[in-house]
Structures are given as C-alpha cells and as structure tokens.
C-alpha cells in the first residue's frame, strides 16, 4: 500500500511537471512555428492571412524541391556561406575573449583585496550606463586609426578586454563561493592563477556557460558593429546581410524567414550543448562546513 | 606571476592531451582569418554604396557592374547595399573616418541636410564639360523637379536617378458597385461625397470599408498626402529665403479640417486603424483587399497589383483639390552623389553617367527579369519604376518585355508617365529629414485628436525652425575641431589616472603591498583596465565635452554652453519627457519579467526526462532576430485576423462584452511591448539557471534530513541563495531597459507611434538623423546620471537583503 502510494505520487508529480512544461512550450513555440511556416510560403500566400498552412505542405506526396524553394532562393540572393563563416568566426573569438578576460577580472574584483578595487568596480558598473550610441563614433575613429576598418577585428577584439555585464555576473557568482575554498588552495601552495583555473573555474561552469550563451547571442545578432565597420560583401555578417530581405519597398518574407530559420539553427545547437554545464551544477563534496 | 602562468600551462598540457588538441584546433580556425582583409587590387578601385546588390535585384546590379568594368577594363567596382538614410551612422562614421565611398546612391530628400554639412561635392564642373558621349548627362533629359531637388544655392550637388509619381488610385469594382462614375473625385467636396457612398459598416457597427483615408499610413507617406492637398490649395513650405518652415498656415488648416471630416465618416482614427492597420500595409495590402476604395498612391502600386493582384480593376486620376483636380504630385526618390573625400571623383562621375543611361537600365532590367523568370516562372513580370532621366523611361516604355499584361494597369502606367513632368519636390534644406518626420508626427497627432491644430502645428514649426536657426545663425566663434577634442580627452584621462593612482598609493602607504593582493589584483583586472583606458575613457570624456556643443559630427563643434541641457530639461523638446516616460514605464515591468523568468527557470530546474529539450524550446524566443519577431507580433496582434485577437474575442471579449483593444494602438502598445518582452524571458532564465545550479547540493541534503518541505526549502534556501542574482538581474535589467534601442528601432519602422518612442531611440534620431550629436550627448549624460542614481539606491539597499554565501 505504502509503496504504491509513493510511486503514484511520484508519477503524478512527473506528469504534472510534464504537463506544465508542455503547456508552456506551446505558448513559447507558437510564434516560432509561424516563422518556420512562413519560410515555406510563397509571396502570394503570406499576403493572404487565411493561409495558415502553406500550400506546398498540403500536397501529398510532398515535393521537397518546392517546399524548400525559399531556402534555395536565399542562397541565390545572398552569399549566405560567407555571411555564416564571418559570423561564426566573430562569435567564436568573442566567446574565447570574454571567458578568458572576464573570469580573470571578476576574480580580481571579488576574491582579491586591493586598494581602489571598489571604486573601479563602480566604474565597471558605470560604463554600462552610458548609451553606446554616443561613444560609437570616437571608438570607430580609434579602430580606423589603427587600420582595422573593413576587417573583422573591431568586432571581436574588444571581447578580450572584457565586458561590464559579464564581469558583474561572474563577480556575483564568485561571491557565493565559500571563502574556505581559496584558503585551502593557499595552504596547498596555489598561486592566484592556479586557484582561479584549477579550483574556481571548474565550479563556475554554469556561469561560464551562461556568459557563453549570452556572448553567442550578442555576437550572432550584432547589427550596429558590422554595419559600421564592414564595407565588403565578403566580410558581411548574417544579421546585416539578412536585413536586406526587407527594404522600403516591402519585404521578401518567405525568403527572410527561411534565412532566419537557418540562422537560428546553429544557436539552438550551441544552446543544447551548453546545457551539459547547467545540468552538472555544483557539488561541493567535502566542503561541508 | 608570469612564471606561475607558465608553470600552470606546462603542467596542464602535460597531463592533458585534449587541451593541446583543442588549442591547435583553435589556432587552425583562427589563423586563416588573420590574413583576412579586402582583396588588394592594382586596378583603379571604385567603392559604390547604396547599390542594392542583394535580394531579387542582386543579379541586376551585378550585371551593371560587369558591363561597366568591361567598358573600363582598368577599373574594379565594389558595390555595397548600405550607406543610405536608413542607417545614417554607416555613412557618418565612414565620412568622419576619412574612408567614404567614392560614389553613393542616396535619398533625394536628405541631400540638403548632408550638403549643408559639407558631405558631398558640387558637380557643376563635371556638368560644364563638353561631352559628346552617349552617356553624357544633360539637364534637358531630366524631370525638372528631380533636378531642382538636387540643386542647392545655385549649385548642382547630385544627379537624380530613380523617382516616383503619385495619383489618385481607385478600385473600379467598388466604385461600380456603389453606383459611382468611373473616375476619381475632382474636388474635396466630391471626394467626401464619394467616400460617404463607399463606406460600409457591418451589423455590429464596425467599419468594414472606407473611401479615401488620407494620411492613414503611419510612415512618411502620411506626409505626402498633406503635401498634395496643400499644394493643390496653392501653398508651399519654406516660404521666402527657405530659412523658416511654414506649417502653421491657412491652407494647412483647411487641409487638416478636410481630413478630419473624412475621418468622421469612418468613426475616427481608431476605427480606421482597426480596419486597416497601417503596419501591415505593404504585405497585407488593404487597398488590394478592398478595405478602402481609393487612395493617393505612388506609381509603385503597379508593382503591387502586378505581383499580388493581376486582375485588380485599377483606375487612376488626378488628385482632388479644394476647388478642382490638381496635377501636382510629390516626387521623391534617389540620386547619385560624390562624397567630398571621394578618392576618384573622375571615375565616380563616369560611373554615375553610366548608371543613369538607358543602356545600363536595360541591362539591369534584363538581368532582373531573367532572375524573376528563373525563380517564379515565365509569367511573372517586373515593374521597373520611373527614372528621372526621361530617355530611360522612353526606352523602357518602348520595350514590349516591360509592358504590364493587364491593359488597365498599363493604362495606369501611361497615366503616371504623362504626369512625371508636373511632379514637384520639397525644396532642399538643412532640415530636410526633420521636416518629413515632424510633418508626419504632427498630422498623426492632429488626426488622433491628441492636439488641436494650433497646438500640434505650432510645436512642429518650432522644432524645425529651431534646427534651421541652429544652422544659419553663427552664435559663437569658439569652435572645437577633432584634434582639439582628442587632445583634451587624452589630457583629462591622464590627469584622472594620475590622481587615482596617487590616492590609491597614498591610502595604502605603509601597509606594505605584500599583505594585500595589490599586484595580483591590478594584473588580473588589467584586461578590463586597458580596455577601459583604450576604448571607453577617452570617448566618454569627449562626449561630456560635446554635450556642451552644437555638433553635427561632420563639421567642427560649436560651444553653446548649457543650451542642450536646458532644451531637454525645460521641455522645449516635447519628445524628451515623452520618451523618458515611455522608458520608465518599461523599466517598471522589469520585476514582472524577472518573476516570470524565475518561474520558468524553477520549472526548468526540475529533474525530469527531456529537460534539455524543454530548455531549448523555452529559450527559442530569446534568439529569434528582432526583425523577424517584429513581424510575428504584428501578425499575432492583428486587429482583424490575429490569433491574440481571436483568443480574446472567444474568452474575455465574450464574457465581459468589452470590445477588443487595439493592441498596437497608442493606448495598448506599451503593455503589448511588455508581453513581447515576457516572451523573450528565456534569456533571463539562463542567469537564474546558473544561479540555481550554483546552490550547493549539500544545503538541500541537510535540509531534507531536517524534514523541510518544498516550499520552505524554496523560502529558506533557494531564495536567499538567489539574492545575488536577483540583485544582478534587477540592476542590469533596469540599465538594459533604459537603453532599449534595437527593438524600438525595428518596431518604429512599422508603427511610428510616439508611445514607443524610447529614450535612446530619440537620442539616436537626434545624433545621427538630425545631426545633433551635441544634444544627443547631453541626453546621454542626463540618462547616465539618472541610471547612476537608481543603481546607487539599489546598491545601497542591496546590503540589507543580498546574501553572499561566500562571506
């Protein structure tokens, strides 16, 4: 009796959880569904609102060439692979830069005692508050002066100097780790670098995964940066490249949505993979106080 | 320190071959890109911007480029689609950076703004040359209004290219059914009478069709309708020497009152918005769907009928005036300009000559047609549009391949063609961009009933006149050039660094550096410190300096003292407080957003199968690009067919009888924005998840031994352990909301409502579109102080409730 009760209770909870999760995902997915459906629509179809399901999907057997026509068109209209390569490169470099620099800087701001630290941390926060629109032109002039105009470098190099948002986030994370961690490391004769990389960073995986995902999104969707620094179609990124499916004279929505779907796919893969680190979580074995 | 890094690396790699492999992979990926840079060529290079080498005309423009290169074998042309008014920061930064395009296709209405700031060179010298080639540019070939729009203070600064023309277009079928004659109304009185007969309501009293709805569109087209009517009444803007705008005039008042009368027929502006929401106009064409029976349409309506409604019964006629039909149509479009710092103006001129020739346009149209045929089938046609060069139009019109298959449409095309010589443009002025923005905003305010004529147009006139005054009046001789600003910034930054270092050294004197981690701290924080000094500190100091100046970016700054701050804070700029209020509203929604994303994160932190998939699904909305999601939401909120409307009508609407709100109308658009934000709560969820995973398992273990329930575990373990993240999300959420920009920009393109004019977008408009970088910098500093104060309050308060487990 008792065993049955526990089982059914566990099952009921699981069922409820799944129910809630599925219900929520329907709401969250609905607009995305529309996006993907539109990517299969012809121009005549998305003009009519009542065409919920694209004509090509109603046929049986399906004609795949016809269904994916908009996707083919994207490749004919823009050098999609060039855009993709450039975007991937900027994104990869930015992530490497942010993870390396921000973990170092945040460590200094949270675990070390040094004069001027708190003042400088306020400065870190303050840099987030000034809209970048006013500093955009001077920063542009600096990059132009060192000859990086029309290269991809201005788009990723700043990541190696850290960003206030991530430094703040990692600092918050560092602050929650017990002080005894580094005392133990210090007793074992570890320097700061070792403490950071060997002791702290393995515990920081969830936070590092979070900044990876955020930086990925930021670089992948960055519009203003590539727009002002790049003049060459071969160096253009996806976000700027896709903008052209929409002009003052109306838009090629089917094609735009097809391109958007292709642009989203890699992001989803990265996110799916990054979750390994969320799932792991922190188990401070042997650290019970 | 360095030794320890080296030691660490050696040990790590020694014990871990995977690390070496990963390192090599990274190097392999990076290395080729270090070689990245534009192809070097020994040919004469020409950078041409504003050329749409993308989308369905990509092949068309590449064909032109190829032919031009065949004609000039020693030349290599690079075409780029950007550089137009839509993203002015592109051209601005290129010009101040000394790397402008060599030639540019640009919007005619804004040429005056840029010429006034010295961006483009006069072309009279080229025009005066003896030229007998087939490509020669002769004034007599061009439509006079287009040509005049490029002429400023007696000099020719641009050569017009593509152009347009307006006429009253009407739906013949609806006219027939209403028993009206097969022609456009001739006078305002007749337009009113026709509209009355065409208007229909359904049984619930909702408008289902209207007649003429002038200025119904929210974009710049709503200004064109005003222009037509005011011109028909015999009036012109920028009277006299052009240094004043005349919005507040009698013909303007008459026009507005006439528009009001038409709107009264339809039950007001809201009811029109409900019937035919402007934002969908381009794609879900309300004219072609018969939601309104007539409209002053651009010749581009032929593209829409040809593409979407080949059988549409289209009639065109002159635009009605107060006493009789008017033949004057507005004409806008593009033109070619040569930036002042173009590296090869001679070649640029050759390029313009070629691109504006009938030959080049035929090459373009043929390639375009071939592409369309390949893509959509042989029965599709292209509508080429009109060119300012009449020789081009003659050639295209004589070509049977570009004839429209429907005789009614072809007839309409011929009508538009015949009206081209009578078109008129707006006189170029240093406030051309502002003129149109303010005119459309004002007429919308008036039609919505937000303001009386005198209020709306008085304020509008002040705004434009102020910019004209700023430009024409030399108020001070104190000018700041680029190098001056640069050296000032460097000096200030060095002084501040020295002072800071001094204070730190003085404070920590005697304590001995060993005890604290001074060296390690500065060394480990150095990436950020260097980045700050290199890229942030200087620009920030420069922006303070510029906030006391009148600065157009293109010309030296003029010192104006506190004027910018006074203008913003005293409410002289009516949109300053409006945009601040809108932004504050959104900031208040931050806790709601945090709450929802925390709920989702808690749900996604449970241990059930398939969690990785669930998390990915919930995360999707956060990564849908804004351009795409803006469209999605317009569809979801559509007042006629949108799913949200449908759900509302089935539930709340049915139960309470309250009519469906106009989701994207002025009153509801901000709450709708909050809803859109909630949909993207997946981004915030990531931080919560990281925080939840950061709570040591051991805490939960010990509590379950103590027999704590789920709720009390949340209350006494999860919540306190999450406080650092609550603090983080609150602070960054509010900062982020105050800086909301991209979403505002993307949505405003479709729904230019003052209710979603957010602070930084207003700042951006001032800085980059109206050339008021000084004012924009002042706005930035006001925002900075405000957000700093808010953050300070939060940081002070945080000491009481944020719990850092580590301490």
Residues in helices of chain B, as a percent range: 55-70%
Largest sheet of chain A: 2 strands, antiparallel
Which structural category do the helix and sheet elements of chain A fall into? mainly alpha
User: What is the radius of gyration of chain B?
Assistant: 31 Å
Which regions of chain B are unreliable across 5 or more consecutive residues at pLDDT < 50? none
Which two chains have the most extensive interface, and how many residues on each? A-B, 144 and 160 residues
General form of chain A? flat
Unreliable runs of chain A? 283-289
- State the assembly state of the protein chains: heterodimer
Structural class of the helices, strands and pairings of chain B? Answer: alpha+beta
Q: Helical residue percent of chain A? A: over 70%
- Count of separate DSSP helical elements of chain A: 16
Looking at the structure, what is the overall shape of chain B?
A: globular
Mean model confidence by pLDDT of chain A: 80
Average per-residue pLDDT of chain B, rounded, comes to 85
- Major β-sheet annotation of chain B: 6 strands, mixed
For the termini of chain A, the CA-CA separation is 39 Å
Give, in spatial order, the strands making up the sheet with the most strands of chain B: 2-1-3-13-6-14
Number of helices of chain B: 35
Number of strands of chain B: 18
The percentage of residues in β strands of chain A lies in: under 5%
């Amino acid at each position: 009796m008792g065993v049955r009760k526990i089982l059914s209770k566990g099952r009921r909870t699981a069922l409820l959880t799944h129910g809630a999760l599925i219900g929520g995902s329907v709401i969250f997915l609905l607009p995305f569904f529309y996006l993907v459906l539109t990517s299969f629509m012809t121009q005549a179809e998305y003009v009519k609102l009542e065409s919920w399901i694209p004509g090509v999907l109603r046929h049986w057997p399906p004609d795949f060439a016809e269904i994916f026509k908009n996707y083919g068109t994207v490749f004919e209209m823009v050098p999609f692979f060039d855009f993709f390569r450039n975007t991937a490169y900027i994104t990869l470099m930015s992530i490497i830069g942010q993870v390396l620099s921000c973990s170092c800087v945040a460590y200094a701001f949270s675990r070390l005692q040094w004069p001027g630290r708190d003042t400088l941390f306020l400065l870190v926060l303050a840099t987030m508050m000034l809209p970048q629109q006013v500093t955009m032109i001077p920063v542009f002039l600096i990059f132009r002066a060192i000859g990086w105009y029309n290269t991809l470098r201005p788009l990723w190099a700043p990541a190696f100097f850290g960003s206030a948002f991530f430094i703040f986030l990692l600092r918050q994370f560092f602050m929650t780790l017990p002080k005894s961690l580094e005392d133990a490391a210090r007793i074992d004769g570890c320097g700061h670098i070792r403490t950071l990389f060997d002791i702290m960073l393995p515990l920081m995986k969830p936070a590092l995964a979070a900044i990876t995902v955020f930086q990925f999104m930021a670089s992948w969707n960055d519009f203003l940066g590539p727009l002002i620094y790049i003049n060459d179609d071969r160096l253009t990124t996806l976000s700027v490249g896709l903008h052209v499916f929409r002009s003052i004279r109306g838009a090629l929505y089917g094609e735009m949505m097809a391109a958007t779907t292709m642009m989203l796919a890699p992001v989803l893969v990265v996110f799916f993979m990054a979750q390994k680190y969320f799932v792991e979580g922190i188990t401070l074995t042997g650290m019970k106080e | 320190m360095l030794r320890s890094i080296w030691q660490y690396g050696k040990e790590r790699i020694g014990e871990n071959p995977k690390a070496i492999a990963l390192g090599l992979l990274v190097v392999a990926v990076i290395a080729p890109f270090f070689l990245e840079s534009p192809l070097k060529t020994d040919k004469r290079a020409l950078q041409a911007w504003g050329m749409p080498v993308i989308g369905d005309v990509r092949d068309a423009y590449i064909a032109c480029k190829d032919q031009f290169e065949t004609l000039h074998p020693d030349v290599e042309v690079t075409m780029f689609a950007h550089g137009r008014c839509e993203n002015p920061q592109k051209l601005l930064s290129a010009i101040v950076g000394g790397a402008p395009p060599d030639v540019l296709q640009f919007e005619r209405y804004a040429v005056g703004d840029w010429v006034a700031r010295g961006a483009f060179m006069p072309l009279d010298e080229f025009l005066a040359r003896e030229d007998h080639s087939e490509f020669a540019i002769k004034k007599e070939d061009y439509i006079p209004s287009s040509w005049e729009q490029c002429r400023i203070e007696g000099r020719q600064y641009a050569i017009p290219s593509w152009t347009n023309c307006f006429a009253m277009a009407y739906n013949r079928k609806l006219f027939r059914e209403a028993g009206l004659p097969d022609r456009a109304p001739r006078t305002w009185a007749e337009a009113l009478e026709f509209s009355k007969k065409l208007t229909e309501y359904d049984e619930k009293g909702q408008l289902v069709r209207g007649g003429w709805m002038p200025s119904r569109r929210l974009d710049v087209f709503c200004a064109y309708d005003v222009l037509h009517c005011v011109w028909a009444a015999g009036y012109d803007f920028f009277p006299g020497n052009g240094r004043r705008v005349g919005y507040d005039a009698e013909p303007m008042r008459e026009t507005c009152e006439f528009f009001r009368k038409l709107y009264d027929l339809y039950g007001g502006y809201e009811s029109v918005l409900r019937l035919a929401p402007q934002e969908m106009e381009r794609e879900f064409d309300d004219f072609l769907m018969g939601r309104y029976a007539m409209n002053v349409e651009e010749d581009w309506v032929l593209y829409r009928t040809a593409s979407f409604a080949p059988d549409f019964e289209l009639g065109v006629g002159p635009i009605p005036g107060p006493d009789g039909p008017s033949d004057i149509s507005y004409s806008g479009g593009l033109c070619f300009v040569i930036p002042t710092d173009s590296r090869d103006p001679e070649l640029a001129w050759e390029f313009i000559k070629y691109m504006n020739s009938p030959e080049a346009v035929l090459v373009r149209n043929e390639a375009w047609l071939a592409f369309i045929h390949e893509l959509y089938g042989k029965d599709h046609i292209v509508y080429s549009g009109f060119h300012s060069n009449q020789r081009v139009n003659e050639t295209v019109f004589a070509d049977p391949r570009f004839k429209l298959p429907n005789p009614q449409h072809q007839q309409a095309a011929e009508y538009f063609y015949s009206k081209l010589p009578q078109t008129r443009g707006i006189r170029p002025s240093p406030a051309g961009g502002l003129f149109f923005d303010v005119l459309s905003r004002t007429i919308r305010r008036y039609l919505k009933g937000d303001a009386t004529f005198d209020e709306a147009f008085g304020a509008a006139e002040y705004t434009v006149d102020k910019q004209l005054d700023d430009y024409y009046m030399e108020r001070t001789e104190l000018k700041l050039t680029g190098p001056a600003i640069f050296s000032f910034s460097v000096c200030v930054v060095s002084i501040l660094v020295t002072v800071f270092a001094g204070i730190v050294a003085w404070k920590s004197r005697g304590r001995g550096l060993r005890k604290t981690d001074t060296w390690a701290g500065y060394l480990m924080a150095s990436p950020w410190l260097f980045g700050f000094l290199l890229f942030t500190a200087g620009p920030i100091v420069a922006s303070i300096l510029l906030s006391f100046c009148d600065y157009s970016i293109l010309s030296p700054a003029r010192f104006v003292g506190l004027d910018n701050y006074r203008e913003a804070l005293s409410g002289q700029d009516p949109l300053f407080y409006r945009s601040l209020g809108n932004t504050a509203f959104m900031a208040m929604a931050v806790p709601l957003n945090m709450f929802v994303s925390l709920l989702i994160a808690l749900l996604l932190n449970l241990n059930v199968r398939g969690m990785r998939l669930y998390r990915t699904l919930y995360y999707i909305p956060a990564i849908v690009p804004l351009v795409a999601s803006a469209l999605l939401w317009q569809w979801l909120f559509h007042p006629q067919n949108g799913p949200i409307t449908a759900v509302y009508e089935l539930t709340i609407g049915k139960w309470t009888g309250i009519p469906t709100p106009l989701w994207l109308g002025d009153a509801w658009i901000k709450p709708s924005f909050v809803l859109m934000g909630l949909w993207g709560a997946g981004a915030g969820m990531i931080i919560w998840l990281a925080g939840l995973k950061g709570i040591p398992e051991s805490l939960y273990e010990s509590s379950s031994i103590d027999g704590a329930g789920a709720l009390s575990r949340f209350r006494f373990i999860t919540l306190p352990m999450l406080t650092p993240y609550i603090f983080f999300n609150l602070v960054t959420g509010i900062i982020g909301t105050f800086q909301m920009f991209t979403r505002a920009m993307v949505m405003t393109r479709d729904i230019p409502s003052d209710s979603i004019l957010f602070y930084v977008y207003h700042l951006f408009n001032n800085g980059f579109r109206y050339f008021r970088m000084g004012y924009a910098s002042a706005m930035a500093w006001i925002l900075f102080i405000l957000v700093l104060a808010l953050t300070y309050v939060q940081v002070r308060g945080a000491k009481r409730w944020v719990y850092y487990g580590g301490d």
